[in-house]
Amino acid sequence: MSASAATVLSASTDLRFRYAVHLGDTSLILAQRLGEWVGHAPALEEDLALANIALDLLGQARYLLSYAGEIEGKGRTEDDLAFLRDPSDFTNLALVEQPNVDFGHTIVRQFLIDAWQLELFECLQGSSEPRFAELAAKALKETRYHYRFSSGWMVRLGDGTEESHKRVQEGLDSLWKFTSEFFAPGAVDEEAAAAGLGPDPASLRAAWAANVEQVLTEATLKKPADVSYRWFGKRNQHSEHLSHLLAEMQFMQRTYPGVQW
Amino acid sequence: MNQAPANRADRFVAPAEREIWRILADVPDPEIPVLSVVELGIIRHVRLADDGRVTVGVSPTYTGCPATEVIARSIETRLEAEGYEHPKVESVLSPPWTSDWLTESGRAKLKEYGIAPPAHSVSHPKHLFREPKVACPRCSSMQTSKVSEFASTPCKALYRCASCLEPFEYFKCI
């Protein structure tokens, strides 16, 4: 798709639907992962923090999936899209479906995605679609707090004890490969960029990398080498972890179709 | 926009709508019940149509704030009790709610309740990257430190006072 004026003015319904679902899925799946920490985090304060971040992300997901259902016009609600799609229909970034492992690992995952969301929402405020721009302005303010939390913990753990340093470095080494997807072309976010709906994914890289490197240096952590990786969530290619996550998240609707509170 | 819509209401709002603002000033926030929804700065507009239908625009404090639906229901219930038929609450996301819209009386009530009010205006985004100086709501000491970025709700952080040794919540600037 070319970035001509015509396409900017008329991003297709289908493209707006897919872009909203892509962004909404990323927030939804990460919210679900963070929710798994409730009652299990190392301290009450961190338990509350992870749950509160999950709540913000769930709010983003609800907004985006409701909007997707609205523009699709087939009567699907946010709940239908969250609970009744198969794993192969999800387009979240593969990083967010990765299991929690330990607190240090979770902080690394959160930090990498927070730094990305900071750049994403900053740029998405200029979307040609007001519904994306409005959400971005709201979510950006919340993401700054998420980032303060996760970057603060990166430094405390990385520059902490021998054990905490080791765990965070291991988390970083195992998760780094998933960040290549943030900026990779050939998926819905690139189409959305061409239509003026959102930023070009590659354009977010420089600011993200500078930010991340600064925190890693302060945290005395070693930046892993860049590699391209086969998991490509935004093209519906997921790791095996997504199916397990959805089996739990969707259990109630799958078992009792149409059940309501 | 640094002023809460409620502050402007008295001067620019028609008497019939002013009456609705007065009723809303009595609807408590479910999570911080000492504050009304007007003091919290989440009421964005009140419209009274020719047929008598009331529409109230409400901004969520946070995208995922679980109180949003409770607030909408309590506003509707209250207006119905006051004789307005089928009042409607609509969500207003843009421009996003900011803690700058807490009213002066709202800030005073927060402090009295034991929650430190937002320490400064957010009109400059740099503020979000700098640690605010927060006064203890009990003893007013500035010898306080942050325990956690998030407390019982996303809108608050957890602090501790080194002077009176009490923990307290701080309503974040956002």
TrEMBL record, chain A:
<dbReference type="InterPro" id="IPR052703">
    <property type="entry name" value="Aromatic_CoA_ox/epox"/>
</dbReference>
<dbReference type="Pfam" id="PF05138">
    <property type="entry name" value="PaaA_PaaC"/>
</dbReference>
<dbReference type="GO" id="GO:0010124">
    <property type="term" value="P:phenylacetate catabolic process"/>
</dbReference>
<dbReference type="InterPro" id="IPR012347">
    <property type="entry name" value="Ferritin-like"/>
</dbReference>
<dbReference type="InterPro" id="IPR009078">
    <property type="entry name" value="Ferritin-like_SF"/>
</dbReference>
<dbReference type="GO" id="GO:0005829">
    <property type="term" value="C:cytosol"/>
</dbReference>
<dbReference type="InterPro" id="IPR007814">
    <property type="entry name" value="PaaA_PaaC"/>
</dbReference>
<dbReference type="InterPro" id="IPR011882">
    <property type="entry name" value="PaaC"/>
</dbReference>
<protein>
    <submittedName>
        <fullName>Phenylacetic acid degradation protein</fullName>
    </submittedName>
</protein>
UniProtKB/TrEMBL annotation, chain B:
<feature type="domain" description="PaaD zinc beta ribbon">
    <location>
        <begin position="127"/>
        <end position="172"/>
    </location>
</feature>
<dbReference type="InterPro" id="IPR002744">
    <property type="entry name" value="MIP18-like"/>
</dbReference>
<dbReference type="InterPro" id="IPR034904">
    <property type="entry name" value="FSCA_dom_sf"/>
</dbReference>
<feature type="domain" description="MIP18 family-like">
    <location>
        <begin position="18"/>
        <end position="80"/>
    </location>
</feature>
<dbReference type="InterPro" id="IPR052339">
    <property type="entry name" value="Fe-S_Maturation_MIP18"/>
</dbReference>
<dbReference type="InterPro" id="IPR011883">
    <property type="entry name" value="PaaD-like"/>
</dbReference>
<protein>
    <submittedName>
        <fullName>Phenylacetic acid degradation protein</fullName>
    </submittedName>
</protein>
<dbReference type="InterPro" id="IPR056572">
    <property type="entry name" value="Zn_ribbon_PaaD"/>
</dbReference>
<dbReference type="Pfam" id="PF01883">
    <property type="entry name" value="FeS_assembly_P"/>
</dbReference>
<dbReference type="Pfam" id="PF23451">
    <property type="entry name" value="Zn_ribbon_PaaD"/>
</dbReference>
